[in-house]
Specification:
CATH topology of the largest domain: Alpha/beta knot
Distance between the termini: 35 Å
Number of strands: 10
Number of helices: 10
Strand order of the largest sheet: 7-6-5-9-8-10
Structural class: alpha/beta
CATH architecture of the largest domain: 3-Layer(aba) Sandwich
Mean pLDDT: 87
Radius of gyration: 21 Å
Low-confidence stretches: 1-28
Number of domains: 2
């Protein structure tokens, strides 16, 4: 990987952990801190100046792949065998030899996102962390910096979500709100065009995104879609035209298509 983590100290530390639990300085995921794993997620966190790293644990091979010298590591980055990292993480976590604990990022306020000008992605009770992570990844790919989720019925930050986002949790900021419909009202009052994606709409997204106003898109849970109050609060509803052979798209795929179309419309 080309990116190199910013320097947080130059003290060498090539010490390996052993299988003796008394010699390990990590035993389990620590509460009160963000725990991330996977090469992209860990590398992006190490490179994020807004992320305070408590400790990173890497295999020798992972350190090399991230672009670090495993024999000259900063004091908060340590080497371990992959099986030791396995023991510190949930069963089945695909860590690729990299994990870290860090402070949570400060959440963004809606007012700041409105001033920034968007686009904004709003998720209405999308609960699967893999889907949310994939949506964050697409948001980052298309230059979107803000995703809004509800304080409840949305997945909390987790290593699973962060790994699915492939580093995007460091660049796409999250806003948590109590009420999605009221948040949409606030955007509409600020003269945003808030478009809910719905397969029942007669308008397609190409038409809906043809506007000079800043755009927010709203995606609902798979199956149930947008809740009635949320759909009613939107400026308009629009659909992604697909073949009749399929009833709907995965929500993360729908987000990627919509974000691509927003970018295409902005260049017209």
């Amino acid at each position: 990987m080309k990116n190199k983590p910013r320097n947080r100290g130059n003290a060498p530390n090539s010490k390996k952990f052993t299988d003796n639990p008394k010699n390990r300085s990590f035993q389990r995921i620590e509460e009160g801190f963000a725990t991330l794993w996977g090469l992209h997620a860990v590398s992006a966190a190490l490179n994020n100046p807004d992320r305070t790293i408590k400790k990173a644990v890497l295999s020798r091979n992972a350190a090399i792949r991230i672009g670090l010298d495993p024999d000259n590591l900063q004091t908060n980055i340590q080497l371990a065998e992959p099986k030791e990292i396995d023991a510190a993480l949930p069963d089945g976590a695909v860590h690729q030899g990299a994990m870290l604990t860090a402070d949570f990022l400060e959440p963004l306020e809606l007012e700041s996102a409105i001033e920034d000008g968007g686009p904004i992605v709003i998720l209405d009770q999308v609960t699967d962390p893999m889907n949310v992570g994939a949506i964050l990844r697409s948001a980052a790919a298309f230059g979107v910096r803000t995703v809004v989720m509800q304080t409840r019925k949305s997945p909390p930050f987790s290593g699973v979500l962060a790994k699915a986002a492939v580093g995007a949790v460091e660049t796409v900021r999250e806003i948590r709100v109590v009420n999605i419909a009221r948040t949409i009202d606030a955007l509409c009052q600020a003269h945003w065009n808030v478009i809910g994606l719905s397969g029942d709409s007669e308008d397609d997204i190409a038409t809906a995104f043809n506007t000079n106003a800043p755009i927010a898109i709203v995606l609902g849970a798979e199956g149930s879609g947008l809740r009635p109050a949320v759909a009613k609060a939107c400026t308009q509803l629009a659909r992604i035209p697909i073949s009749g052979a399929m009833e709907s798209l995965n929500v993360s795929n729908a987000a990627a298509i919509a974000l691509y179309e927003i970018g295409r419309a902005s260049k017209r």
